[in-house]
Amino acid sequence: FARAYDQAGFGGGLNWYRSIVRNWEIQPTVFPPGVAPRGKVPALMICARNDYICDPSMTENLPSICDDVERHIIEDCGHWTQQEQPAETNRIMIDWLNRRFP
Fold first, then answer.
1. What span, in angstroms and rounded, lies between the C-alpha atoms of 40 and 49?
2. What is d(CA 70, CA 57) in angstroms, rounded to the nearest whole number?
3. Which candidate, 8, 11, 18, 75, has a CA 20 to 30 Å from the CA of 99?
4. Termini Cα distance of the chain
5. Per-residue model confidence (pLDDT) at position 57
6. What span, in angstroms and rounded, lies between the C-alpha atoms of 27 and 19?
7. Residues 21, 24, 27, 28: is their CA dihedral positive or negative?
8. Residue-wise pLDDT tens digits, 58-102
9. CB 5 within 8 Å of CB 33
10. 3-class secondary structure per residue, the chain
């Protein structure tokens, strides 16, 4: 990881945030309401109760667009689940992986 960071920095990871306004503007033209393709692979969504970027309520409709999705909410956690609650995030992911892909 350190070697990759030395070569590329963190610019790529930040570009999503840099382009959020433009993405918000063009999203309806990419996937108009009701036209988004359905997810057909098993998916795991880990939400954080105190996430002010992606409130858990924003993921309630996932079953309507994904054929096979499991959703978890981590309490007492903000946007960065893997940094704020690493043990709980790992527990959820490992449990899901062990059940779905033994």
1. 26
2. 14
3. 75
4. 27
5. 93
6. 12
7. negative
8. 999 888 888 999 999 999 999 999 999 999 999 999 999 999 999
9. no
10. CHHHHHHHCCHHHHHHHHCHHHHHHHHHHHCCCCCCCCECCCEEEEEECCCCCCCHHHHCCHHHHECCEEEEEECCCCCCHHHHCHHHHHHHHHHHHHHHCC
For 68, residues 6+ apart whose C-beta sits below 8 A from its C-beta are 39, 40, 41, 42, 43
pLDDT at residue number 1: 64
Amino acid present at 71? R
**pTM of the entire predicted model:** 0.68
Burial pattern 16-36, b for ≥16 Cβ within 10 A else e, equals eeeeeeeeeeeeeeeeeeeee
